Amino acid sequence: MANSKRDLFLKRRLRVRNKLRKNNVGKLRLSIHRSNKNISAQLIDDVKGVTLASASSLEKDLGIIGKNNVEAATKVGAAIAERAKKAGVEVCYFDRGGFLFHGKVKALAEAAREGGLKF
């Protein structure tokens, strides 16, 4: 029986996350989620199980509701970097989940780096 797209995505996400956790013990995780309509990012402390900062294209103050493009991802990346600085975070690791590192995911990562996050 062939694996579905969803099964392959979940395998890829777990493979990426497990490798990252093994190599980045004690660091905070910048986790992203991309749907067909929106993109969001969270800065997570896995030791405490707490989300320190988050940003999403659904937020009204970012002014990008209804836009699913690279511009929206760039604004979300800049917002998460700004909120991470307010929380006192400068270093984290980038958890792309099962998503490929191109397009909106890459735009979010580059905007977060430009905003001052190091990963």
TrEMBL record:
The keyword rRNA-binding applies. Gene3D superfamilies: 3.30.420.100. Signal peptide: none annotated. Keywords: Ribonucleoprotein, Ribosomal protein, RNA-binding, rRNA-binding. Pfam families: Ribosomal_L18p. GO terms for molecular function: 5S rRNA binding; structural constituent of ribosome. Coiled coil: none annotated. GO terms for biological process: translation. GO terms for cellular component: cytosolic large ribosomal subunit. This is one of the proteins that bind and probably mediate the attachment of the 5S RNA into the large ribosomal subunit, where it forms part of the central protuberance. Belongs to the universal ribosomal protein uL18 family. Part of the 50S ribosomal subunit; part of the 5S rRNA/L5/L18/L25 subcomplex. Contacts the 5S and 23S rRNAs. This is Large ribosomal subunit protein uL18. It comes from Celeribacter baekdonensis B30.
